Amino acid sequence: TGYLRKRSAEYMRDWQVWDVLSAEALWHSRSGWDKLGKWRKQNRAWSWVMHGCVLELNACPWLLSLEPSLFWWSAEKNEQLLQFWETYILIMETLEGNQVGALRMFESENKTLTKEGILHFLELYETKRLPNSFVFSEFVIGPLMDALSESSLYSRMPGQSIGACPPLGMRLQKFLATYLTLLPEEEKGSFLLKFIQKMTSRHWCAVPILFLSMALASIPACKVLGAEGLQALRDVLQCTMITHQILLRGAAQCYLLQTTMHLTDVEKVSFPEVSSFLLSLRPEESLRRDTLLWTELCSWLQVNDRCFRNSVTSDLGRQETSSLCQYVHSLVGQYLKASAPERENCFMPDWFEAKLVSTMILLAADVEQMKNKYSGKSNIEWIELEAFLNPLLDVLMKLGSNAYIPTLRADKSLQLLLKLLQTRWLKCSNVGDLDRCDLYLALIPEIMNLCLKVNLKKMSSIKNFLSSLINASIRNLQERNSEKEPKVKEQIRKVAGMASLAAVCEIMDGELEVHLESLPSVDALKKFISFSQFNEVLKKPSYVEEKNSLQEETTSQGWGKIVARFVCDQWICLRFVLNSSATLAQGCEETSAMSLSTAERSKEILQSALEALSILPSDQVSPVFDCMKVLVPKLLGSSEALCIEAFDLAWKIISSLSNTQLIFWANLKAFVQFIFDTEVLAVAASAKGQAYTKIKEIIFKLIDLSTTKTGVFNVVLSHCCQSWIFPTVDERSALTNAFLNAGNYSELITEACVFGTVFRKDQRHIQDVHAFIENLGEKCAANVATESANRDDHFVRICAVKFLCLLDGSNILHKTFMEDIFIKLLDKDELVSRSRTRYYANSLQHRIKNRVWQTLLVLLPKLNQNFLCETLDRVFQAGFSNNQASVKYLIEWIVILTLHKYPQFLDKFWDCFCYDEEKLKKSICTFLSVLAHFDIILQNTSEKKPALKKALLVVLQWCFSHNFSVRLYALIALKKIWGMCRMLHVEEFEALTPVIESSLQQVENMHGTGNARRNWQRIQDHFFFATFHPVEDYSLETIFYILPRLSELAEDEWISLSRFDRFTDIPLPAAFQCHSRTELHGLKPSDWSQQDMGSHLAEGDSQTEWTDVQKKIIPWKNSTPSLDLEMAFQDRAAKLGKSNSRLIVVASLIDKPTNLGGLCRTSEIFGASALVVGSLHYIQDKQFQHLSVSAEQWLPLVEVKPSQLVDYLQQKKTEGYTIIGVEQTAKSFDLTEYCFPEKSLLLLGNEHEGIPANLIHHLDVCVEIPQQGIIRSLNVHVSGALLIWEYTRQQVIKQKQQQ
């Protein structure tokens, strides 16, 4: 010990070590690790040095005062730290030189390793001894934040529920809050400023910037940021606008505003700077007036009122403070002023100022209300609000009397009024690109809304105004130009007239209860529109007249844009006329112009609509769709070709807009309301012609589009379900029963029941973050401010299931429809089973089958006896299929419920046991599981003894099966049935009593070292036999949430009952609203999944604390695994950096665990870069593990299913790999003559069929092994081993030659 201490001290005084450890800041740079590895190679006593360092730190505490310091010590945790450093030394000594780089976690390409490194680093906050050094701060702002920019790091950990905060998000909050509290006051501001500026230095994705903003908002309140910090936060706000994830964008804005309120030193910032920051927030996404965030902002302004820095310095040079009321007073006054140069400018003022002033007025008003509330005043006096609005009221009062008021001032006052009204009623729509006409017209519905809320007496004057507006607009439009070349003012007057009529029509089409239809001018409007020529294009005006501002305005916008606006307004007016009149000629006297029949006039208008679709911009076609919805049903019989042309052109427009986020959804909604209008569907279905076929074709096109653009199917299904089961009162069709459409287009519901794609990992990650934000509820204002788009894929299935839940089995139409859906779902299940008999857990095929049987389970109670009698055989046949566990449980449940309700079907059930053993060997456990609930099946029958006798005879024969699992299921069923026999005293089986009871007793008391006794106990404790009650547990929550969770379906298949309540406006019947029993909620997935996961338990890690440094170690074995099994095994070997080879061995076609285990061992020994298998579940097989001898823990394993091989091979070709098949073909190379490229991919065939023909043409070359014997084939493991060795031998020779 003395010698070791002396040697350690000598090495410790070698300052070369400390230079590397401290000055290079091991975590800060790559060079630190490189120098450390180089120094370690040159000093064999590396481990003694580090051990000596630890001992000397105890003896010499002065070493801890070195700055900057990497290591620090705690005498209280001496034992733990000694054990840690000894383990660290052993790992460093065990790893080879090139593997030390694996510890550079923040720079690793392996995201799992990076995540582990960051999580452990952030745990430093628990020590409360974070190093206070410039190097550490630079590391946090530099490499740490660079690493935090990766979105995938913020994923949930296994075991976390959906909607929980990811571990990295929680630790980031605690780390940042702790680190800031430990920093000196003078350094906090500079650190935070650099941190925030770093967030603007690159293009961050939505997820990282959200959690960084949340971490900033969690810092305890301290006044450290000034004007520069506020500007930096505003820059971060601009960065959030890049993402199209609206909810995440809004949430980030909320947290950045909270950061501003917590960290800003109000004495260093002014109200203009604060208001400019607030204006960067979008009210439709975050800062809305009815949110808790708005209240928190008002409270902050109230507390800090008169503390903000004045934007103007006093004459004495002293910095004065400003109050909110003073600032808003001056803001309103400055806004309504118009200087002489501005008065000459006739262009519309910028809306930014109006938005700023209106926001600050409302904030000041709410702060005043808050002050009055806290002061205890019973009558609130809006003194300040009146003072703010008086200047605006003065201008508004003069608009009708003072002809000399500046145009700019009038425009500004109306803009401010409009913004105040829109914000007051929480409307956040952008009117966009307004000229004065748009401004005035936009004010009309807002003022009407205000009058309806406040003063109904004013409505008469508004109606008079609207009548005058309609009459004046019609006169302007009817005027004929006397000159050949129209002038600008004349044409703009026509545009304004049509826009005015469109605005009035939209008001009457809206939900405002103003009853304007009784006005005489409305009849004149209908008459004028009915006789109008549609798609009338205004002739471009002449610019010969003197140049003026109006001419500049029209040329700047473009005459084409103005004409498109004019045409669109025509169709808005026509939409109102069509919706309010039975025929176009209603209310009009007969004239020569209306001599055409209504059908001919409708055809003429539909042709004009097609023309309008071809000339209008995509964002203005919605009113045309609405008009076509009225016209097409009238013409389907006489002009079907024209209607089909309308369908095709409408679909062409929608499909072309699929990548245009801003206008796609509004147009899609109008398109769906047109194509899937109740009358359109009914007329097309009654004729069963080409239009009916075209609509069904569009249905499947929309479903196909939904797989790439989430939310499309949601819009279609929501509209159809609402219109079919809750039809509107004002149906135009004689076909009053809208539910007929459900039967005619049942494919829509069938596809909806099984809809949903298998999401990529990044898509699931975004959904998880969305769920986390939604779970915050009102605490995050974005949940209140953002409009729910209902674009979740669960929406489709929930909507379909709720639709089915509302159906009534006593209604003949409902009954027929449900039976049709039941048959079609069974057909879909059989189709999936035939197309791919072997499918993998959580694959798309598995999910479709699971969704099919979930829906069938929902429908089951609504079906009558005769129908079930006809279809029960198909249910039994499904039980014979090779199904995944979750599907088997659903089939068993359906069989139990059917036999429980109709015991007379038991004879059909007994027939299932009469098939030959070959058919029953994989499915008999399904039917034996049904018998394990025989007590529930016989609840509704009085004659139980004959059924028990038959059941006992059936079960006893399977108790002697060769298969151990079958015997277990038979015994569990026997135990149940025999218990019932004893309770009922069935005398026929008295002779068998000793045999059966001794057998059951022997099973209960079985001994031995194997798994038999353990498996017997587990199957008795199994959820399906011990806890589950098929009748009492029947609920939507059990079907769609509990069962998928316990059967280990992917989490994106779990649908909670709260989602059924939250999604769609379709009500859920009370019978389906009940929750599952509490006994089910407490069960863990392992309790449920053991039935189909094999009869063996995973062997525990019996490895004791190792002492032999020569033994291979797995330092990451106990680290938290990734969510994906594939990543868990792939990353383990990558962390160790063992392999240098560029050889990939693909064994996806091999399905025997012994061959795969041997190949895994061979590939690891000869340094292959990866082994590709068809399923990573083989790794758990005992035979695989026996042959691999832990090679899978050191070799990257990748899962590529056989169906995915073509895409995988093509991908590897693009990466420069040569695809080599081990196969005998006419052009195959002899192994002894073939030269392997460095980047080689070796594809091995199946044990029996070899490489399929469809893969042969994807190979670059085939290689065969020369043979001398009679037998013409080798074991696939042996063949693979020969080629792997030959590749390795050639690469070793090449390396030696290069050296």
Automatic annotation (TrEMBL):
<dbReference type="InterPro" id="IPR029028">
    <property type="entry name" value="Alpha/beta_knot_MTases"/>
</dbReference>
<dbReference type="InterPro" id="IPR044748">
    <property type="entry name" value="Trm3/TARBP1_C"/>
</dbReference>
<comment type="function">
    <text>S-adenosyl-L-methionine-dependent 2'-O-ribose methyltransferase that catalyzes the formation of 2'-O-methylguanosine at position 18 (Gm18) in a subset of tRNA. Selectively mediates Gm18 methylation of tRNAGln-TTG/CTG and tRNASer-TGA/GCT. Gm18 modification can enhance the stability of modified tRNAs.</text>
</comment>
<comment type="similarity">
    <text>Belongs to the class IV-like SAM-binding methyltransferase superfamily. RNA methyltransferase TrmH family.</text>
</comment>
<dbReference type="Pfam" id="PF00588">
    <property type="entry name" value="SpoU_methylase"/>
</dbReference>
<keyword id="KW-0007">Acetylation</keyword>
<keyword id="KW-0808">Transferase</keyword>
<dbReference type="InterPro" id="IPR001537">
    <property type="entry name" value="SpoU_MeTrfase"/>
</dbReference>
<dbReference type="InterPro" id="IPR016024">
    <property type="entry name" value="ARM-type_fold"/>
</dbReference>
<comment type="subunit">
    <text>Monomer and homodimer.</text>
</comment>
<keyword id="KW-0949">S-adenosyl-L-methionine</keyword>
<dbReference type="InterPro" id="IPR045330">
    <property type="entry name" value="TRM3/TARBP1"/>
</dbReference>
<protein>
    <recommendedName>
        <fullName>tRNA (guanosine(18)-2'-O)-methyltransferase TARBP1</fullName>
        <ecNumber>2.1.1.34</ecNumber>
    </recommendedName>
</protein>
<keyword id="KW-0489">Methyltransferase</keyword>
<dbReference type="GO" id="GO:0141100">
    <property type="term" value="F:tRNA (guanine(18)-2'-O)-methyltransferase activity"/>
</dbReference>
<dbReference type="InterPro" id="IPR029026">
    <property type="entry name" value="tRNA_m1G_MTases_N"/>
</dbReference>
<keyword id="KW-0694">RNA-binding</keyword>
<dbReference type="GO" id="GO:0030488">
    <property type="term" value="P:tRNA methylation"/>
</dbReference>
<feature type="domain" description="tRNA/rRNA methyltransferase SpoU type">
    <location>
        <begin position="1143"/>
        <end position="1284"/>
    </location>
</feature>
<dbReference type="InterPro" id="IPR025806">
    <property type="entry name" value="TARBP1"/>
</dbReference>
<dbReference type="GO" id="GO:0003723">
    <property type="term" value="F:RNA binding"/>
</dbReference>
